[in-house]
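Hi! If you just cloned this repository, the fastest way to understand the data is to look at a raw example. We've pasted two of them here, unedited. The first protein comes first, obviously.
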Amino acid sequence: MDKVWASALEAVADIPDDASLAVGGFGLSGIPATLIRALYDHGVTGLKVVSNNCGTDGHGLGVLLAAGRIARVTGSYVGENKEFARQYLAGELEVELVPQGTLAERLRAGGAGIPAFYTPAGVGTQVATGGLPWRYAPDGTVSVASPPKETRDFAGRPYLLEHGITTDYALVRAWRGDHHGNLVFRKAAANFNPSAAMAGRVTIAEVEELVEPGELDPDTVHLPGVFVQRVVALSPRQAAEKEIEKRTVL
């Protein structure tokens, strides 16, 4: 099956308002920037996003956030995005903060068909006992708080029950991909892209280099095409566009 679509805009055109969306990448590294821009042009709103972070001001998911298109974020990092913090504290955005390793495993578990698992991460904190503010009211009080989580002892050590995550769609970026959706990730793009791709019921991958079927050595494939439904080949200009969060001059 040839899964290549003509453009990013066509590939995201059926994503509806209020859809849930897993997005790969780490900071601005390895993010599906072209698909995110296409989603912005599509005009969809009310998105429930699962991603390590929400981009930065003006880049990545930060573009959708600034336009008021995101209703809820499940992630592990808020920094580098002042608008994210402003919306959260003003009660305009619901945020579920998750330990980073737990978030990665929840995505992977959801994609593997595992509904829940036990982890020691978060034991003894509000991650376990509940009460973390998911949404603030305009007056600064907490209107929605995290619930307590089930705990269980294994070999005398307490663990928390965490649920796997699946989403309606997933947007990811890969270094190489073929027409069947087999993907190879490079360097920082390996962060969260494979697990996000597994979690999406419909996964859309933008690839820097599109190759013909059979050209990828099976031993080099990081994610098999069974997890990918749509592939978008980037132009050389799009593939070269890689933003940097902070430039340091010595």
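Ok, and the second one:
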Amino acid sequence: MSKKVDYKKDFKQLYLPKPAPEIVVVPRIPFIMVSGSGNPNGDAFAKATEALYSMSYAVRMSYKSDDVPVGYYEYTVFPLEGEWDLLDRSKPSTDKNNFKYTIMIRQPDFLTEEGFERFLEQTKRKKQNPLLEKVRFEHVEDGLSCQMMHIGSFEDEPESFAQMEAFCTEHGFTRLSKMHREIYLSDPRKTEPSKMKTVLRFSVSKA
């Protein structure tokens, strides 16, 4: 087995940016994902997150199975990510019941659609989670994007987004939509809000 792939080292630019805005190009990446809406503090969001991790660890541990995926290599499971938007854009962004989201976990490039279906069936046999029915496998390419590391509470993210938008204006970039991506590097159950690390990112175009 080749050396272990660790996203904090091998994909450092995408997962450990500095706490200041920067422009990056995000390539096409394979994900397993679940879409939903409503308050992320609710049960549906928790079940969706659980489904994604169950699947991700099934893929990660598949080297122990009788049918190891072609091209398998050892790697660190990637962090949870979320794309966020609003159901009703006329309502304030502070209304969490108005959230629309797709949460996802990046997968290694050896995972195929066929492999995904196999791991999904295996996981369904082991886990009684209704959100497994909504899990899907897709590739996403964010392309030209503005990102930064947000350190602190989720409630303080608007300040970081304001910095990012000011940076874009100053350097001739235009934000393409209000939808944005968050990458969660801290466990909110174990980390003080003031120390949580979240990568914030949105797509841009060059003016």
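That's it. A detail worth noticing about the second one: Strands lie at 22-37, 80-86, 99-106, 136-151, 173-175, 180-184, 197-206.
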